[in-house]
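Changelog-adjacent note: as of this version, every example in the card shows the full chain rather than a window. The one below runs 302 residues end to end.
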Amino acid sequence: MSDDGPIYIGGLSYSGKTQLRLLLLERPGVLITRRSYMWPRYAWRFGDLGRDENLARCLDVMIASPGIRALDPDRAGIEREFRAGSPTYARLFALFHAQHARRLGAQRWGDQLGGIEQYAAPILAADPTARIIHMVRDPRARLAELLHAGRRPGVAGWETQQWRQSMRLAVDNHEKYPRRYQVVRYEDLRGDTERIMREVWAFLGEDDVLTSRSDATLWGSEAQPAMDARLIAYVERHAAAEMTGLGYVPVRPILSQRERFLLNFIDAPINRIGLAARGFRRANDRARVERTARSRGVAVHG
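Full-length structure tokens:
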């Protein structure tokens, strides 16, 4: 291998993170876990990890988590290695993954976790070899799949706002870290897997790997669900700028008088609640992360 730095896969649900992880796992020596939740749940929550009591509390909570227990960590080994270096959260998290990778004979580890893009600055600052791949998807198609999977139409506002926030991070992080942060569109990966994976492997400093997976094993055999014109119009009304910036062209569907009435007086009021709630939740989450990070002298925005 020409590189051995950690690989993080971020982005929202139904955006192709799992498919990318499966493709990356075809490279011998690469091991990518999923849903460890280390950064969003534990970063900077326990104070200075150079203090034994803080480290012990942090490890107690982390190892009790099912996602981390699945890594089968050797706590004594992690504590021993951790005390031999700088007492940072980034380094502690990396030790869990590195230990798991060594046990399974892998030379390069990674983690798939939605929302990891929020932590790009501290992750990339902590390890100059780390790389982040942010999966993005057309919000109209993503919402159609969410609704097909059983989500209520009223979540359109929440999901649209969440998509906008994630896309802004995709653009901002790529501009700040162009050689270490890659944005990959779901549609491109699905439509031209070999070409996109060549670009991904080059970004990761690896030789090409010819995929042996069929479309059915990656993407399933079902056709992508359709989305009605009202929801398309709703998404485009609130996310057109971000869509255009990522190459998603608004179709501006022509609505009947009845559809316009339902959009304006049923869909919009219902989804406005979700839109506002997600914005409020995001602002609170971000403020908490930034406040805690600043108290530890860590940059969040880079």
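Structural remarks: The chain is about 55% helix and 10% strand.
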